[in-house]
Write a structure and sequence with these properties.
By secondary structure, the chain is of the alpha/beta class. The protein is built from 39 helices and 28 strands. The chain has an 8-stranded mixed beta sheet with strand order 21-22-24-23-25-26-27-28, with helices on both faces. Residues 785-823, 839-855 have a biased composition (Low complexity).
Length: 1259
């Protein structure tokens, strides 16, 4: 296997370095690391002052996030794993505008939106919410360009059977598959192993990334970057080998894909480079230098491009040599290649996300050689033969477009009227169009930064393919926030042509005349017809409008854009359906809640999906009462119409529920509230009856339809003129019903008929007043007035007035048609003398065609108008007074009825209140009697309890005395019968052994057996709890274990014979063990003991020892300070869930099966909660502050995994912990000295060494 120069094996001289994704919290609490966070914290405090950031909290957030990703998404995490881990280099970039800034700001927005105190990734109870936060973080990082996915090509030489699996791994990790090696953007090429197979020789190697004082940051081969560790500098290689960048794509073995899938993150491709790739890099010379500090850290597309540079003068090597290579081989190769001085090392100027400007020291001469072949950038406008012959144009001075850096800038074409747009700034036009994003800078969802980022992302999405139309749905998938606000931004950009301008149906045609790039562009500027990265200015181009379009004012960009009422106030149903807004949940931004959502009435722009509403994810200060359910109307369902069954259900719902449209819509089932209301208003329920009641314009003729003309001709005065729908009718929409009725009557008759009727009405008003008639006659200029009572004009006189000179044949004016017409039209009854003197009177109209002018043609005298007005007002006043009197009487009558009704209601209420008072009085008496009875019963019960307690105490004292006597008698019998405990290989003469009884917490006697070394002096004390599944075992069965511990450790061992289940279930055993520990620390001198005091146990005893250690920490005082350590041998630490891999692996173990363990735990618990910490210490939420611990496990043991998990949690919590797994051993076999004669196969030396370190203070 080949390794980097000066690569040292990770296992050397018996030393083993842990390789795991476990995070060391101390690394993120060190002063050196916190100092690097100062610029970032200052930036956060300036931008988000309400966030209250500090470097300690930020370091803790990074450590918790890394540990959470390892626990939830790492190699040992349980499925499902919804997405891969974030690259660790994103969290190592502490630049003020790097990805860590975005992560901290996003966590603050989550805290503010959900009303949390802080985002605590270490809380296992919020795993689902933390995964949601991590998913939104991935989208934000991808949108900002920090998280980029690799473009992987699987070589055709790979086995065909492995290709589907490899493709699935790449897709699960978020990578993109390339069809061919030459596809654009390929970053990794995966090849099969060579003839020798996998180059991994089984040895573990590491290389140094950087040094910081006495520590070195190392990377272990064939592990992801999240497994990098800080080790002492003396155990690490001398040479610093930071990550490198290469020319072209990485050529890696297939193991790179499989290992990445196993760890659920992209591994470092340097560890998997092929031999051919290394040889090619050696031939080409040194690799590219690392990116300067401060540049954005690449994502998975280049996960090995690190920001950290090597020490001064230490150039990274691209060549890997074997361990047996001659010394200095790598240094010779690097020196032969020489340094690369094209780009100046150091921090560059960041222009945009993913874009950094650097100084060019020694440019490539081939790029400046005018004779060298160039690349045709004319987009097909220049021929191949002309590209090389054209001379290079001199660079124009101060063009102002290419910039000082000389970097190529890609131009983005927008319409001329949007030339104000700048990618890096916000124009005043945008502020005026969307003021809500700029009025409140402290808002999380609507602020200038949010607007600019959202706007630029939408523009970038469109620029990926400007020939394809971008829809809001596609853009919405990449955005997070209020859907309505996002849609307003999208519509604003589309209205100004910043997106979809070149797409089909947009503002620019595909074959526009201006597609050819203009001449004279400055050097360094090229046109990207298919869009490109952000940063381009506007090419001012606008399609020419045709004269027809300008005159019609239609189309996009028309000159006469007239706004009609339809355009301003409404759309057609089809348009409204096509432009329906989408709503997304504020608590779960990836959920579309357009169909059914819950809208907040207290805080605007807050909508929740049904799942979030059911889970109670309300904003701070809001409850379920502050939300209303909104069902969106389905345009498709509305267009389908109403079936007979739905109409029947609608009418039935109206009858059942009245105005409760929510219940009516639920009763219909297939329609929303809005659809039900709209359809009900459109039902023709009373149309036919109203048509029958409407009067006709003429007897025997139907009422004309609205909008239809009823005029037969100019001479038709019998039918009214309704006019067309466009003709205005005065007072048609008046609120006064009288005026509305009058306008309708006017619309039903002709203008001539209306004028004649008005004239005749005025004349009739004058007939009853002779004085008024004379005044009207003088005002009309018709000669002397006829005396009152003279009667109508004779027929002959009427005929002469008409100019005919002859009377009617019958001599009767009443029967004369012409006279009747004249009388009705001219009102001759009011002016009898006007006919005789009309011809010669001055001021009268002249004769025309031999006929006198009609009276109707003369103007109405002012006196007649005044008379008519006075009469009308008088009649109206009289009528109004009569109506007012009638209304007054009706109001008095109704008021009297209301008073009588209220009087009756008050009397009824008074009667009910009287009855209620009687009921309450009776209930009060009953409650007082019951209270007295309860008081007497409680006194009697207290007396009986006192008597029972006294009797119980007396009996208990007698029982303790009896038990002590019985124990002494049994000991004498055992001695007389020669029965001895199981001493194993330890002889009883080597230790002093004595038995005694102590009181437990409940007063019962608790047997102890104390083992003391024979030598003089005081010894450390070990309180020993035997195993047996809480059901079996005792002092005699486990004497050999306690004796071996006492002999090996030279300590006093206090063996506890706690009471067993099922006769004494939980918590009896815990109380006995706690009482024994307290007795031991209080009687150290009596048992020849001294501090330190250690608790130890095997199997179930290990469980009790761990519980006693946690109780001592909780109790505090001398109980906590005296306890120095804990020893757990094959302990049972989680009785709640028996689902670890070791349980499944050894569920049929003949010594200790899973069924046996379940039976033991059932006997011990007997229905009590197994998840409480005093039963399952592994489930304790806080393990900090516990004494040092030694955990010993057996390889073939169902309890193995939970014990090792407990050790890992102790170490993570800062507790000094030692863990050893005995290979080939089964449960408690490392204690069986009668089976294993080799001391290395037993655990007693480990216990003795651990106790020695405790006594010496090294732990």
């Amino acid at each position: 296997m080949e390794a980097a120069a000066d690569v040292k094996p990770s296992v050397a001289a018996g030393e083993q370095h842990e390789k795991s994704g476990r995070v060391c919290a101390k690394d993120f609490e060190s002063e050196a690391y916190l100092k690097t966070l100062d610029p970032l914290v200052q930036r956060l405090q300036a931008d988000i002052p309400q966030g209250r950031y500090d470097r300690k909290g930020l370091g803790q957030l990074v450590a918790q996030l890394l540990q959470f990703m390892e626990d939830a998404l790492g190699v040992n995490a349980l499925p499902p794993k919804p997405f891969p881990k974030l690259p660790v280099k994103l969290l190592e970039d502490v630049s003020p505008d790097g990805p860590l800034y975005l992560i901290a700001a996003h966590c603050h927005s989550v805290v503010k939106q959900r009303g949390l105190k802080r985002v605590d990734f270490s809380n296992p109870g919020r795993r689902k919410e933390h995964l949601e936060i991590l998913a939104s973080l991935r989208r934000e990082l991808a949108r900002e360009g920090h998280l980029r996915q690799p473009h992987v090509h699987l070589h055709p030489s790979l086995p065909a059977g492995d290709l589907p699996r490899l493709q699935r791994i790449v897709e699960q990790l978020g990578g993109e598959l390339a069809a061919s090696e030459g596809a654009p953007g390929v970053t990794h090429m995966v090849l099969p192993f060579g003839p020798d197979g996998d180059p991994d020789d089984g040895q573990e190697y590491m290389r140094v990334l950087r040094r910081e004082g006495t520590t070195a940051r190392v990377h272990f081969w064939y592990t992801p970057d999240s497994y990098d560790k800080n080790l002492p500098a003396d155990v690490a290689p001398e040479k610093i080998e930071p990550d490198k960048r290469i020319r072209g794509p990485w050529r890696v073995y297939v193991r790179w894909v499989t290992d990445s899938g196993k760890f659920n993150e992209w591994c470092n491709p340097i560890d998997y480079e092929t031999e051919e790739a290394l040889a090619e890099q050696e031939r080409l010379g040194p690799v590219l230098p690392p990116e300067p500090t401060g540049a954005p850290v690449p994502g998975p597309a280049d996960p090995t491009a690190r920001v950290a540079a090597a020490d001064a003068g230490d150039e990274p090597s691209a060549k890997r040599v074997r361990l047996d290579a001659p010394p200095g081989a790598a240094g010779v190769a690097a020196a032969a290649a020489g340094p690369r001085t094209e780009i100046a090392l150091g921090a560059g100027e960041r222009l945009a996300p993913g874009l950094t400007r650097q100084a060019l020291l020694a440019p490539d001469r081939r790029a400046l050689d005018g004779a060298a072949p160039g690349l045709n950038l004319s987009q097909g406008q220049l021929g191949r033969g002309d590209a090389g012959a054209a001379p290079l144009a001199p660079r124009p001075p101060d063009t102002g477009m290419a910039g000082e850096t000389g970097a190529t800038r890609e131009l983005f074409r927008v319409p001329m009227h949007a030339a104000w747009f700048r990618y890096e700034a916000v124009h005043e036009t945008e502020r005026n169009a969307l003021p809500d994003f700029f009025n409140n800078a402290t808002s999380v969802t609507k602020n200038p930064t949010m607007y600019k980022e959202t706007r630029n992302l939408i523009v970038d999405l469109y620029r990926r393919d400007v020939r394809r139309r971008l829809t809001f749905t596609e853009a919405r998938r990449q955005l997070v926030g209020d859907a309505a606000a996002l849609q307003r931004i999208f519509e604003f950009l589309e209205e100004w042509g910043l997106v979809n301008f070149q797409a089909p149906g947009g503002g620019a045609a595909a074959d526009a005349d201006f597609d050819v790039a203009p001449d004279g562009l400055p050097s360094g500027v090229r046109i990207n017809a298919l869009g490109g990265p952000p940063g381009g200015d506007a090419l001012l181009r606008l399609p020419r409008a045709t004269p027809t379009a300008m005159l019609s004012g239609g189309g996009d960009g028309g000159a006469l854009g007239l706004a009609t009422r339809r355009n301003r106030f409404g759309r057609l149903p089809a348009e409204a359906a096509s432009m329906q807004a989408r709503f997304y949940c504020n608590a779960m931004p990836w959920v579309d809640c357009t169909a059914v959502r819950y809208h907040c009435t207290r805080i605007p722009d807050i909508d929740l999906c049904p799942d979030a509403f059911a889970e109670g994810r309300f904003p701070p200060g809001c409850t379920a009462a502050d939300f209303i359910r909104i069902d969106a109307a389905d345009p498709k369902a509305q267009a389908q119409g109403w079936s007979d069954q739905e109409l029947l259900l609608l009418l039935e719902g109206v009858e059942l529920y009245g105005d409760s449209w929510a219940d009516i819509a639920e009763h219909v089932g297939t329609k929303s509230q809005v659809q039900c209301i709209t359809h009900f208003l459109q039902l023709p329920i009373e149309d036919e009856f109203l048509a029958d009641l409407a009067p006709s314009a003429r007897a025997g003729q139907p009422v004309p339809e609205p909008g239809a003309s009823t005029r037969a001709g100019d001479g038709d005065t019998g039918a009214g003129h309704a006019g067309s729908a466009a003709d205005p009718i005065p007072f048609a929409d008046a609120g006064n019903p009288v005026m509305a009725q009058a306008s309708w009557l006017v619309s039903m008759v002709g203008a001539r008929v209306g004028a004649a009727a008005a004239q005749r009405a005025l004349e009739v008003l004058c007939e009853d007043d002779p004085a008024l008639a004379a005044e009207v006659g003088r005002a009309g200029g018709g000669g002397a007035a006829e005396p009152a009572g003279s009667g109508p004009v004779p027929a002959a006189q009427a005929g002469s007035a008409d100019g005919s000179g002859a009377a009617a044949p019958n001599g009767n004016a009443a029967d004369d048609q012409a006279q009747a017409a004249a009388g009705s039209g001219a009102g001759g009854g009011c002016d009898p003398g006007a006919g005789g003197s009309a011809a010669g009177a001055p001021g009268t109209p002249a004769m025309a065609n031999g006929h006198a002018p009609k009276a109707a043609d003369r103007p109405v005298p002012a006196a007649r108008v005044r008379v008519a007005a006075a009469a009308a007002l008088g009649a109206a006043a009289v009528r109004a007074r009569l109506l007012a009197d009638e209304e007054d009487r009706e109001a008095q009558r109704l008021a009297a009825e209301a008073v009588e009704l209220l009087k009756g209601k008050v009397e009824a209420k008074a009667a009910l209140l009287d009855q209620l008072d009687d009921v309450l009085a009776r209930e009060t008496l009953s409650l007082e009697a019951a209270r007295d009875q309860v008081f007497r019963e409680r006194l009697e019960l207290a007396r009986r309890k006192a008597e029972a307690a006294a009797a119980s105490a007396q009996l208990q004292a007698q029982a303790i005395g009896l038990q002590n006597a019985q124990a002494a008698f049994q000991a004498q019998q055992a001695a007389a019968a020669g029965q001895e405990p199981n001493w194993g290989t330890v002889q009883p003469e080597s230790l002093k052994v004595r038995d005694l009884l102590i009181p437990s917490t409940d007063g019962c006697s608790l047997p102890l057996r104390i083992f003391t070394p024979l030598s003089a002096g005081s010894f450390p004390v070990i309180v020993w709890y035997h195993g047996g599944g809480f059901v079996m075992g005792g002092l005699n069965s486990h004497t050999f274990m306690a004796a071996n511990v006492a002999k090996a450790c030279a300590a006093v061992v206090v063996a506890v014979d706690y009471r067993l289940a099922p006769e004494h279930p939980f918590p009896t055993a815990v109380n006995d063990c706690w009482a024994a520990y307290l007795w031991a620390i209080d009687n150290l001198g009596a048992i020849d003991g001294r501090e330190p005091v250690v608790v130890a146990g095997n199997s179930a005893g290990g469980n009790l020892a761990a519980v006693v250690a946690q109780k001592a920490r909780q109790h505090g005082g001398r109980a906590a300070s005296t306890l120095a350590a804990q020893v757990l041998i094959c302990p049972a630490l989680d009785l709640a869930e028996l689902n670890t891999p070791s349980y499944d692996e050894f569920k049929d173990d003949p010594f200790e099966s899973k069924a046996d363990l379940e039976w033991f735990w059932q006997q011990y618990l007997q229905g009590k909660d197994p998840a409480q910490p005093e039963v399952s210490p592994l489930r304790s939420l806080n393990l900090e502050g516990l004494p040092p611990c030694l955990v010993l496990t057996a390889e073939v043991d169902a309890l193995r995994d939970e014990a090792e998990q407990y050790a890992a949690r102790l170490e993570t919590s800062g507790v000094k912990t030692r863990l050893r797994r005995f290979k080939g051993h089964w449960h408690n076999s490392m204690l069986q000295d009668n089976i294993f004669s080799d001391s290395t196969q037993l655990c007693y030396p480990d216990i003795a060494a651990f106790l020695q370190d405790v006594c010496s203070g090294s732990l």
